[in-house]
Design a protein that fits this description.
427 residues, alpha+beta, 6-stranded mixed sheet, 3-stranded antiparallel sheet
Length: 427
């Protein structure tokens, strides 16, 4: 949460008596020290805007995010004219609560104004922290270029916590880009910055990120079984002369060349069948049943299959050819490449959604749609299918409706999400 800086948190609040001013300072100091209960005891019965902001921050720290958001909104309205700096801190706190709630809305313009306010008042700690919050949101939505831009704007390396958070986010970006050595170096620096005796959620996040570097991220289809693939192994596959049909990102790549088939599920289904059969050909009857779901094959299905294969040749023209055989079709990778099929660790047709939900948090369908680059209607249909399969759970209703993974199921790591374009922002 934003640093309240007790010495400045209530500057300009001349309408409050000396006792109230002292309560605000003591509450802010308690929050900075991690004493949430102590902070609440000092402002629990007050309804002035500064007290509401402190209570909202405290409620966020104990996990009551809906209540925290409500309190912070009230505080922001009350501080809009009275105290610009405290108002900016409320905006930042609300943004972090929205991030924790996986809310698809994002106050981009208001955060820009808050950042300018922090700089104007010399609050460099919160200015840097704001950029880290924006970078964290961009990473969750898999906008890695935008996240790197926010981290580049983060200039305050003097505070160990800020430096450790920046290192953690850098490690996540490097992990998703399969720059494993750089990810390990960023995590090592973050542990050093945080110090050997520091504890709490940030240290837990660093330890979790360290485990992700060694955890399997996909399965490689073999002759008899699926072999787990770690980030290091995936990096080697990307470097070698191998055509990777990636069921986790719904695409195909050969070294630096990548073709996404996220919006073309029929083509990707056919490509998966051909990769499974490679180096042999996939039978026409099997391809039709797999891609079109038809039990009885007739001439119309064969015509449709020929059309889909023409589309596949155009889509994969610079990576692979598709050769018609007497009884089916066969992949013929260019440059003598071999073919490897990667599958998600969770057996589902919607690995991107499972990857997003893999952080264990509850997401709204709107946020999932934005992060996955799909329509909200398509995401809702996919979520219902996953719920019927027992892979996800729904909770709440109306605006509070959220989705999360079933706790007994393994999760595909989010590093395998396809990188989307610039983030969608709205107030």
């Amino acid at each position: 949460m934003p640093h309240l800086d007790a010495g400045q948190a209530v500057q300009g609040s001349d309408n409050f008596g000396e006792a109230m001013l002292n309560s605000h300072k003591e509450a802010a100091l308690a929050l900075d020290a991690g004493d949430v209960i102590g902070a609440l005891q000092r402002v629990a019965l007050r309804d002035d805007p500064v007290s509401l902001g402190i209570r909202g921050t405290a409620m966020a720290r104990i996990g009551d995010l809906d209540r925290a958001r409500s309190l912070l909104r009230q505080a922001e309205r009350g501080l809009a004219a009275a105290d610009r700096l405290a108002h900016a801190r409320c905006v930042l706190a609300q943004a972090e609560v929205q991030l924790a709630l996986r809310d698809g809305g994002w106050p981009a313009s208001r955060l820009g104004k808050a950042y300018a306010t922090f700089l104007a008042h010399g609050d460099l700690w919160n200015a840097a922290y704001l950029k880290l919050v924006e970078a964290r949101r961009a990473i969750l939505w898999n906008h890695l270029d935008a996240a790197e831009g926010f981290l580049a704007e983060h200039q305050d390396d003097r505070h160990p916590v800020l430096s450790a958070v920046a290192g953690l986010l850098t490690a996540h970006i490097c992990l998703r880009r399969l720059r494993i050595a750089e990810a390990r170096a960023a995590l090592a620096k973050a542990f050093i910055d945080l110090g050997p005796h520091a504890a709490g959620p940030l240290r837990s996040e660093l330890l979790h990120a360290e485990k992700l570097l060694e955890a399997p991220v996909a399965g490689r289809r073999g002759e008899r079984r699926v072999v787990p693939v770690t980030p290091d192994a995936l990096r080697v596959l990307n470097r070698d002369n191998i055509l990777i049909v990636d069921g986790t990102r719904l695409g195909v790549r050969l070294q630096a060349s990548v073709v996404s088939l996220v919006s073309r599920p029929v083509l990707f289904s056919l490509l998966t069948s051909l990769a499974t059969a490679w180096p042999a050909a996939g039978l026409r009857s099997d391809l039709i049943r797999t891609a079109f779901g038809s039990r009885h094959v007739d001439e119309s299905h064969r015509v449709r299959l020929r059309m889909e294969m023409m589309r596949m040749r155009r889509a994969l023209g610079n990576l692979c050819n598709v050769i018609a055989t007497a009884d089916g079709y066969r992949l013929d990778p260019l440059h003598g490449a071999s073919v490897v099929l990667l599958e998600p660790l969770v057996g589902t047709r919607h690995p991107q959604i499972m990857a997003l939900l893999g952080d264990g948090e509850a997401w709204s369908s709107r946020a999932i749609a934005e992060a996955a680059g799909s329509s909200r209607r398509s995401v809702q249909r996919a979520l219902e299918a996953l719920r019927r399969d027992g892979l996800v759970l729904s909770q709440g209703g109306g605006p509070s409706h959220r989705w999360r993974t079933s706790p007994v199921d393994p999760i595909t790591t989010p590093m395998l999400l396809p990188q989307s374009g610039p983030p969608t922002v709205r107030d």
